[in-house]
Amino acid sequence: MSLKSSTKVDVNTQELLFEVDAEGFEAAVNAAYEKQKRNISIPGFRKGKVSRKLVEKYYGEGAFYEEALNTLIGQEFPPALAESGLVLVDNPKFEAVSVDKEKGVEFKAVCVTKPEVTIEDYKGIKAPKSVNDITDEDINAQLEQLRQRNARIVSVDDRGAELKDEVIIDFEGFMDGKAFDGGKADAFPLKLGSGQFIPGFEDQIVGHKIGEEFDINVTFPEEYQMEELAGKPAVFKVKLNAINMTELPEADDELIKDTTELDTMDEWKADMKEKLEKSAKSQADAAFESYIMEQLIAKMEAVIPNCMFERRIDSLISTFEFQLKQQGMSLDVYLQYTGMDMDSFRATFEDRAKNEVKLRLALEKIADNEKIEISQEDIDKQLSDIAADNGMSLEDVKARVPMADFITDMRVTRAIELVKDNAVIDNSILENKEEEKEAE
Asked: Angle, nearest 10°, between helix axes 306-326 and 331-338?
């Protein structure tokens, strides 16, 4: 094999010509014959016992060329690609330019290459970073959630129904004196004030007591999902069977002892404040990084092959499909539920895929610009951590992890840290955004 030429024929498109001599071609053709001969039959000869010469005479000289050429491409293209130094982002398109048993074979490979990227001013990016102060109201909100999680349902029989109660009702709906489909239920649980029913329905239950039977008069909304009911008045005959209320525990030390590992309310509040402050800092750090990454995307310049976006969409869909399977649902069923076809579903990932591809290219370019290298010690440490987390040996991890991609990922992570470390906090950006909103 030899790489004959490498020619740029378009943006991100390179044409490689590589050759295989007559001896290599003959070996590939003979190997194809040896592989296929057991299945070859010619009248008058036992299956698998026909000579290559006879087969070629019967079926033509090129009887084994297709398999031989495919084999040669698989064998000879990788070293030709390595010699060219190109980085591909899609599968090449191959063509046998000339095939001659005396001269050998010349192949052409049309290759889509990784785009050239330029990015400047990635150091010193200005970004807002504001950590929210934790107030007593924030802590009290968490306390209220704790009380709600530990609430108990209590039956009520000495008063009328109130908003926020759960009532158990039988009902049937009538329009012009006739019952309509879908308007009847027995022992139906309804949280008053939830907005689960059409406007006015829940309010008219308030004040009624257990055992009472009464009418509720309502008008269906103009844009109600059932067109035959939309905008029309209706009467619901209702019987109130039960009233349940939510009883919250007292906000005291006993609640803390019963529901947490702490002993007093003061301890819990101090612990909660620390957790909320940590969460607020994490959110600020994430927002800071996200803003910086957006700026990198805006700063990078490249003509990116569309296949890179399509491949990223494929990857995102594959991850989404795996998550669906974990929930016991197939992608086909999900598409039926959402009313989308595959094209419209793919379109939902388009913006995300484009941004992720652009960001990755920008960070890889920064890693190149900054000559970021990863030591073997750092590689082994990362692999050891993966092995420990997954209960595997270091050797097993090394056998399964594609090292080139793994090292690139580490370089990208270092590039992110470099850009963040050199970024400048500038909260005037937030103030300017607020002023723009007010001006609107």
From this structure: 100
Could you report the per-residue pLDDT of 136-180, keeping only the tens digit for each?
999 999 999 999 999 999 999 999 999 999 999 999 999 999 999
Alpha carbon separation from 419 to 69, 129, 220 (Å, rounded)? 48, 15, 57
> What per-residue confidence (pLDDT) applies to 430?
76
Taken as a whole, the chain contains a residue count of 440
Backbone angles phi, psi at 35, to 5 degrees: -75, -35
Residues 296 and 119 sit within 8 Å (Cβ to Cβ): yes
Tokens describing residue 186? 């027995």
The predicted pLDDT at position 1 comes to 56
List pLDDT tens digits, range 183-215: 899 999 999 999 889 899 999 999 999 999 999
Name which of 292, 405, 309 is nearest 115 in CA terms.
Answer: 309
Q: Is the dihedral of CA 400, 376, 363, 131 positive or negative?
A: positive
Q: Model's pTM, two decimal places?
A: 0.77
Give the pLDDT score at 39.
85
pLDDT tens-place string over residues 291-343: 999 999 999 999 999 999 999 999 999 999 999 999 999 999 999 988 899 99
Rounded distance between C-alpha atoms, residue 220 and residue 203, angstroms: 15
- Residue keyed to tokens 């080139």: 404
- Judge contact between 401 and 386, C-beta under 8 A: yes
- Determine whether 167 is exposed, middle or buried from the number of CB atoms within 10 Å of its CB (0-12, 13-18, 19+): buried
Single out the residue of 169, 116, 144 nearest to residue 269, CA to CA. 144
